[in-house]
Amino acid sequence: MSLVLDGLLAVLALALALRVLLAREALAAAIGFVGLGLVLALLWVRLDAVDVALTEAAIGSGVTGLVLLRAASAAKRMAPQGLAVRGLAALLAFVVFCGLAALVLSLPEPAPSLANEAAAHLEATGLGNPVTAVLLVYRALDTLLETVVLLLALIGVWSLSADRDWTGAPPPLWRYAPTPPLVFLARLLPPLGLLMGLYLFWTGADKPGGAFQGGAVLGAAWLLVLLAGLRTPPKAGSRKLRALLLLGPMLFLAVGALGVVVAGAFLAYPEGLAKPIILVVEAALTLSIAVTLGLLVLDPPEAPGQLPTEGRSAP
Amino acid sequence: MTVLAAHASPLGLLLVLAVIVPLLGLAPLLLLKARPAERSALVFLAAGLAIVCALCFEVARSGAPLAYFLGGFKPPLGVGLRADGFSAFMLGVTAVVMVAAGLFAMTAPGADKPRMPLAFWMLLLGVWSALNLVYVADDLFALYVALELLTFAAVPLVCLDGRAQTIAAALQYLLFALFGSVLYLLGAALLYGTYGTLDILLLAQRAHGEPALLAALALMTAGMVAKAALFPFYLWLPAAHAGAPAAASAILSAVVVKAPIFLVVRFWYDIASPAQTAAVAPILAALGAGAVVLCGVFALRQARLKLLIAYSTAAQIGYLFLMFPLAAASAGAGVWGAIAWTGGALHLVSHALSKAAMFMAAGVIAETLGHDRIAQLSGIGRIVPISVFAFGLGGLSLMGLPPSGGFVAKVMLLTSAVQQGSWWIAVVILLGGLLAAGYVLRVLLPALQRPDGNLVPVPVARWREMVALALALGAVALGFVPLQPAAFLAIGRPASWDGAVP
Predict the structure, then answer these.
(1) Does residue A206 form part of some domain?
(2) I want to staple A294 with a disulfide (CB 3.0 to 4.6 A). Which of A25, A219, B65, B172 is the partner?
(3) Which candidate from A103, A149, A265 shows the least CB-CB separation from B70?
(4) Touching check for B193 and chain A: CB below 8 Å?
């Protein structure tokens, strides 16, 4: 039974990948990409990597898909590449595929792994999910800096604004009158999204989930509200908004520094208090990630009252 | 949590501070008003410099590398930071360029507008933190995060002025950089799948020149070469570096492209087997030779000053790859003591200083004239003599004329090449010097002539010209270092965790 299911998922993933490749419209390719991401997430579940599956669904397919959809609806239609170029690209992709397959097949069996060591120290952290232990205890620096990467990416997007717009608000996500079904969904789904996001964050300490996945779901719920025009995007210059962006990374840095004083190393946690501290840090991270991801999907700030930029049309 | 005791050097915390202090500077920049925010950035600039100075001083004083285990977890479970002589050297070069670029940007035109200075400062601090992490992290995934941080801070620097063509250049840079990241990540995943650790020094112990090691390192090197804009991947560099504001160009050209090169050195001298290094080094050197010659020729043909300097960067990067076979061949005598090695490092620092100085000088010239067309530069030497002098001194080092760091570096590389009978490398080094002379003189000769007509210069702050001059003088002063392998670079080499843990 499970073999049939796996086979079905694999065939579906390949079919969707082909659809993305062969789509004539950028928009169709972007939609195919979102679908592909969801199937990949299911495949990750089948591989018992539920944390990866959640991240793939929330970030890889969800937020990235939204960015691609927006880009695709703004992009002009491109002339299809010539047969020779496509043939060469296909050949190159095939060679890369064969090379990678050979490399992966040559990896030692069983694969050397740090899983046992990570599990061995799990008890001292008080956490139940070894993935969270890796992300927030053993390799906390990586996670801390990943959140800073998000923040810097947002600053990069904002830096594309004109000088007078630096502190203005991003333009609305959708410049047209929202349809009634959209408004209905935007009233119905966000409470569920809120619940789901908070659950993912809270359960992350012991089961699959965590700040990135929870934050992505919260951010998506917020974007849905913006999409339906129920709220307008906040001003980039708002002190409150900026404090919210900084909250996660800066609290994480502060906890890291506290570790130097009370636990003997940067990003070490005092004995017995690891789990509560991690939950507080994750709560702050979830909020900051939700806001940052939401703002990353929006355009750079614009001064109020500007006309819509050229080249934008309803998809 | 004392699962694993936190073994670290007494002053190992300096490594952590070098990475996080620049990031703390983001908070006031986002929260304060424009003027106090910019002043706070100066404080963080000074703090960053002080930390790096203390770190370099400690490495030199103790003659041993600094090490730190984050969270108290030793590798392979945790992430280790480590700075030996080479890392400390890179940290030092970066700090000097960052501080100079910050000072230069202080009173730049547009400094009274809200966006430019604040966005610039945040990106500068982000780049600095990322570079410091590249130089101290010993873990392949932490390095990946550092490279991502570097990409997302460096790319927006390219299009700060918001013109459509600079945005296109930034996008091209982003695509090359992300392509490099993907290749790097692929290689890192293969290494973890093969050896079960991401720690570079543990990898070095476990790896014994297997084919999988070669494949992984080749992928990662290809990724880094794309990020470093080595020939033939230089296509993104000229537009990106020439389109950025002068202070940002200085950062991008002088230090950002050096980070991936540092990692290539680590891959092949810290992880690969000597036989693998010896096999790959000629390929890297051939690409380097292509860069020195072809990008040098392209630089000669540029019509705009900033593009000329940018092509010169693409050419000068080539020298650093010429070093690989020379240093690899002397492995018997200890790679890190080899004269080629010191020559390469000296070339790196003198190029960083002179290139930053030249981009700043070009920025001042472009502001004064309102353009940077080389054909219309005549007489500029009478209007902004300090900037033209700084450009000339930087050019002196690029050409490799005495006294300059570039001269000593080239003498060392030439000596090594001749000693080892690598005549083709010697020829490339000499040819590269000639090409550099050609493109530097193309700018200097008209600049020193009488003005054509009535130039109406825009006044520029003397202060900023002095920053460029100070950097150029630094490149010249490097010409007085002794012609022998530098002991500082050999500190903590060959690399291992043993020396660092008490």
Answers:
(1) yes
(2) A219
(3) A265
(4) yes
Q: Is there a domain that residue B448 lies in?
A: yes
B407 belongs to a structural domain: yes
- Whether the model clears a pTM of 0.90, i.e. scores above it, the answer is yes
Residues of the domain holding A249: 130-304
Whether ipTM tops 0.85, in short, is: yes
Phi, psi (degrees; rounded to nearest 5) at B107: -110, 25
> B159 and A256: CB-CB below 8 Å?
no
> What part of B 103-162 touches A (C-beta under 8 Å)?
110, 113-116, 118-119, 122-123, 126, 129, 133, 141-142, 145-146, 148-149, 152-153, 155-156, 159-160, 162
- With tokens 């990353």, the residue in question is A296
Strand partners, A302: A169
Check CB contact under 8 Å for A107 and B13. Answer: no
Secondary structure class of A285 (helix, strand, coil): helix
d(CA B306, CA B181): 27
B70 belongs to a structural domain = no
> Taking CB atoms and an 8 Å limit, are A253 and B155 in contact across chains?
no
Q: Is residue B347 part of a domain?
A: yes
Task: Give the total number of structural domains in chain A.
Answer: 1
Domain extent at residue B330? 279-486
- Residue A164 domain flag: yes
Quick one: average pLDDT of B357-385?
A: 90
Mean pLDDT of B234-245: 92
Q: Is B77's CB within 8 Å of A121's CB?
A: yes
| CA of A100 vs chain B CAs: smallest distance (Å) | 9
Which amino acid is residue B444, in one-letter code? L
Residue A184 lies in a domain: yes
Q: Do B122 and A104 lie within an 8 Å CB cutoff? A: no
Query: Residue B499's pLDDT band (boundaries 50, 70, 90)?
Result: low
User: Is residue A107 included in any domain, yes or no?
Assistant: no
B337 closest CA partner among B493, B131, B115, B146: B493
Total domains in the fold of chain B: 1
* Dist. CA A297–CA B222, nearest whole Å: 31
